[in-house]
Amino acid sequence: xxxxxxxxxxxxxxxxxxxxxxxxxxxxxxxxxxxxxxxxxxxxxxxxxxxxxxxxxxxxxxxxxxxxxxxxxxxxxxxxxxxxxxxxxxxxxxxxxxxxxxxxxxxxxxxxxxxxxxxxxxxxxxxxxxxxxxxxxxxxxxxxxxxxxxxxxxxxxxxxxxxxxxxxxxxxxxxxxxxxxxxxxxxxxxxxxxxxxxxxxxxxxxxxxxxxxxxxxxxxxxxxxxxxxxxxxxxxxxxxxxxxxxxxxxxxxxxxxxxxxxxxxxxxxxxxxxxxxxxxxxxxxxxxxxxxxxxxxxxxxxxxxxxxxxxxxxxxxxxxxxxxxxxxxxxxxxxxxxxxxxxxxxxxxxxxxxxxxxxxxxxxxxx
Length: 367
Description:
The strands form two sheets. The chain has a two-stranded antiparallel ribbon with strand order 1-3. It has helices at about 1-30, 45-50, 60-65, 70-75, 100, 105-115, 120-145, 150-160, 165-170, 170-195, 200-215, 225-235, 245-270, 275-285, 285-295, 310-320, 330-335, 340-355, 355-365, and strands at about 60, 80, 95, 120. With about 375 residues, it is mainly alpha-helical. It has 19 helices and four strands.
């Protein structure tokens, strides 16, 4: 009886500690927050508003938004809530664009949360805090693969109150991917830690493929986890080892098939904009990213002074216009409106040829 009472007291204390920390994070991490307008602006969450109001995965053009004061005020963060009745029933809608399609699952998630709890930016804020604590739980579980409980708890709290983690919470799109990455790391860690039966191996492959597929609808960075997962699954131990090669091939096939099936709507919209990955790579050469690497002292030179989308685009086209990255054999493709994809990749190769050590340091920091 005493043991049961002791466990109840410990459970209540842990619950109180978690709630207190959640409240502190909710209040402190979002000081000066202006909404999760992390991929362009808050306007990109208009499809989530449409989903929450029962109109489906559609968009509203900018001119129409300006004629609806309540919607415009909500998107511009002049107010944090929006009632379903504040939107005209005959409001003109348009098809969601390809950029919205890339973040389909994120927008559906926000839309469904708004359907349940009401259309409010504070719901997104609370969702970020919830994801943070789930991620802290995953960090604890990953640590437990090698560390005792007390040390694992210390590691989880170090993650929970890490300044870089808390600062990323304001960007819901960028922060939400941590949940999927840590879940996959935990599964792969268990497979590396102990030998896996074929049945468990196939189940893990299915789970990783599903997590990757859903995660792609939140952040396209998840695609880099696929080859890493395949590599680690190919090297983990199987028990029994008989027919291990066949099991590995089947497991890899399951993972890829599930990933492709779930992420297909995202991949279809991503293909025409595949150059976005190159754009992000160029942004990674910015001075701000140099400081955020945290592995080396800042260089005595700057490669990309401002972390800005328009600035990066202007640099790429300027390098082409002034002949730095011009290639006469590809002029026809560029003249045919190639969405600047060729120029972006060419600019990256040119930057690597001048700053090879910087590129290697970023590769090292990424892993």
